[in-house]
Amino acid sequence: MSETRIERDPLGEMPVPAWALYGIQTERARQNFPISGLRPMPAFVDAMVWIKKAAALTHKETGRLEARLADAIVQAADEVLSGLHRDQFVVDPYQAGAGTSHNMNTNEVLANRANEILGGKRGEYRPVHPNDHVNMAQSTNDTIPTAIRLAVLATLPRLDQAMERLARAFLQKGREFDHIVKAGRTHLQDATPIRLGQEFRAYGLTIERNRTRLKQAADALRDLGIGGTAVGTGLNAEPEYPKLMVKHLSAITGLELRVGEDRVQLMQSMGDAAAFSGALRTYALDLNKIANDIRLLASGPRTGLNEIILPAVQPGSSIMPGKVNPSIAEMVNMVCYQALGNDLTVAMAAEAGQLELNVMMPVIAHNLLYAMEILANASRVFAERCVEGIQANEEQCAYWLERSPALVTALAPKIGYAEAAKLAKEALAKNVTVRELIREKGILNQKELDEVLDLRAMTEIGVPGQRKKA
Fold it and tell me: pTM of this prediction?
């Protein structure tokens, strides 16, 4: 493992591990950027390899690249995509601007493996050269933004499936809990009645709206600027290259892709990536609010709301025996905070482009894909290990509801806001329920009282006491 080979680049010579499929430019990056200890996100590796494979197929089709060299590059790419050689992608996400190191890491791995397939040796770059053949008609400046788009689009189905499961879990609980009437709360104060099922159904619909929003934001990422090469003008790329690349990338990935309308614009702006990140941020905000609500509804068991019971997944304390915490919801909170930080990084990096290029693309790629990964995992685990197992505490819901002074709201159309407010204050002062106070004062007879304080009816649109009988 300690053996090396000597490679050369425009800066000179340096040793590279003899076992490495990567070469000198990757080794320089490995030594220059020992920053986080992280490797590139797997989806980002896949996306770059897809581009190199598509380019080889394109150049074979146009005759610009000798067929046997193109076939070797394609075979090397397929090996990586099948799971081989993944340890050879070693450049830290925090690297030199634009992503040249990541691009060259991919070029060198595929070139060395293609040469082995053709009977050559690692590090000699004959007959396949990383720049001349694997990177033919490409630049870091058009491959990296294309890879970001491909990686996000390829990752989205997994996130969408996790969100769909979480939405389905909440909607199912909405149906299961639809008969349970409870106290609503606004400003963390007692409010008019609501059904527990209505709360849970709303959570599910919120997640569904976020699924739609993410799909809409992702659509702009289907426009590819590949073929722009260095500054978007297409120097060194054949006129047919962009269209052929999109054709081959579509076939390789199974994604719906489009030739970008203006490659200069697509190279200058990271706005599409920032917009998608913004949609992720909105989901993280909504998901975080929902997780907080679940924690609040489950608080107790004796000194909190205790309206729902969460599945016990682990002991909650190292000192307090029998304590059980809302562990899964807490994890979701932490993931959402991280995703919000990822979005801030993407936003600042997207703004930091200059003239024909945004050099902050590596950190945009890492933060976008990392946010998608942790949000997908958190959504799936939230559904699987928390929401699907939630039980309602019907007795506690009924207890809090009956004691809520906000029930006087149903009386306001009959006796006026000011008189209803007096009743609410008096009920609190005497520590009696609104129903008991009304009966005590004889404000309504029993029939009127039952009609006005029909708690289930109060969870639907209508004026108390004036609803038509079915």
Answer: 0.96
